[in-house]
Amino acid sequence: MRYGLWVVVLALAGCGEEISPEEQARRDAQDVAEVRAAQIAPPVPVTLQPIGFAEIEQQDMVGLGCSFLATEGSEDALAITMGDAAFAKRGGEIMRLAPDRGSPENPLGTQVKYDGREFSMELDLLESEGEQVGMETMGYDARLTLTDGRDRVLFSADGTARCGA
């Protein structure tokens, strides 16, 4: 009886699929990639809120820079870029971002890209020559884009950048 049991066990062990080392390496790599992909959280979209004049005064966002307005006729900026910082409002909180000095320059000493803890912000002027919209202000067609640390887009809008004092 014992002899018969061992014969069955050995017979079953020999029935397994033989895998080449290359195939095993490919399967292992695929398994690792699936585990890593499952660990990366999906991007969380960002909703920006308009920055009001009282907040501009409170946060000392006064001076040379550019304001991004997403809708025509709106006077409240969704983002403000200056030479030493940029600002955006989310969830009622004003977030300050640092200029990326390696990025191209926008007018008045501002940068195209600014980096923060949660995301990076880019204000791309879609035209090199703006149009006069005030005594000291130029208007440009622009695009504002927010990305996370994996360069995934969290927010994107076309609008107008007003650059001046």
Topology:
Elements: H1 2-13, H2 21-39, H3 53-58, E1 65-69, E2 79-82, E3 86-90, E4 93-99, E5 113-115, E6 120-125, E7 131-134, E8 137-147, E9 153-164
Antiparallel strand pairs: 1-2, 1-9, 2-3, 3-4, 4-5, 5-6, 6-8, 7-8, 8-9
**Mean pLDDT over the full residue set:** 86
The biggest sheet, with number of strands, parallel, antiparallel or mixed sense and barrel status, is: 8 strands, antiparallel, barrel
DSSP summary: helix tally: 3
Radius of gyration: 28 Å
Low-confidence stretches: 4-10
Distance between the termini: 96 Å
Number of strands: 9
> Helix and strand string, N-terminal first?
HHHEEEEEEEEE
User: How helix-rich are the residues, as a percent range?
Assistant: 10-25%
How does the helix and strand content classify structurally? alpha+beta
